[in-house]
Predict the 3D structure of the following.
Amino acid sequence: MSAFKQIIIGLVAGAAFVCSHAQTKLPPAWQSSLVRISEEGILTYIPDKDGNTIPDFSRVGYYHGDKSIPRYPVVKVVSPVKEGDSGALIQEAVDEISRRQPDENGHRGTILLKRGVYRIAGSVVINTSGIVLMGEGDNINETRLIATGKERRTLIRVEGTGSMKEIPDTRVKITDDFVPVGTHSFRVSSTKGFKVGDRVIVYRPGTQEWIHAIKMDQIVERKGTRQWTPQEYNLAFERQITKIEGNRLFIDNPVVMQHRHPAGSQRPAQLYRAHGDHDGAPGPPLRHDSGRAPDHAVVRADAGAHHRLCGGPQRHYGSALLGADAPHR
């Protein structure tokens, strides 16, 4: 790894991508009973007795891994203030680049945060797409963001305005009595009107049977305890159709919640076409140290698509390095 390291988050338009330098090969001494790694480093997933497999998310990368992460030139350089809060300085740079017109690829500009310590008392907000924040360093003399104070918060908020909407009269039933975790296909009542490339929502309604099976209607009563109800756990997953064979649809990424709805079920799993525009933006991680109050997340993206987060160690955050709220790809 070179001494100069880029850490970026950018948004152009549509799946989240996280860079990792971890190797896939493991010592031959141990292999899981659910997934195995070949000598070539290829993963093989082994179903359980019901057909469930560990979900294969190898296609969840930036543009499904079909495109390389772009590198754009720096248009703004920021250095930390010697004393006090640097959050306003970073926010001013973000706001300045937000006003630029995007190029043909939707990129507005890369902001380079020079080596140094950036103390941030609040949150940096990015609400325009096409912005990249980039740090530099080698884990010693590096760009470092420190969340100061004791308030729990997200350090970098990526806030978009996109929405996902159902296309009327496209909803069909998933007709398989059981759809296992990890599968990429299932049968529907009709494929009329669907085509390869369509963005769809796999809709799994909450049921009392499911809630009872996982005992979430039996939570030990304490002050403020609320038992789960089916209406609160209707789950929707955005996918894309990759192939159609008769009444069987194939999707790009796996089913992550099994569907068990026998024939005649009053609340069967469903699928419908959807469309939407995601206009979000990006934030960076660089190194994040919160010596006082752990944040809920270092970066949280809301209503965005094709964010990318690469490299950089993070420490002392309370919930997650990267959080994503719906609608998000």
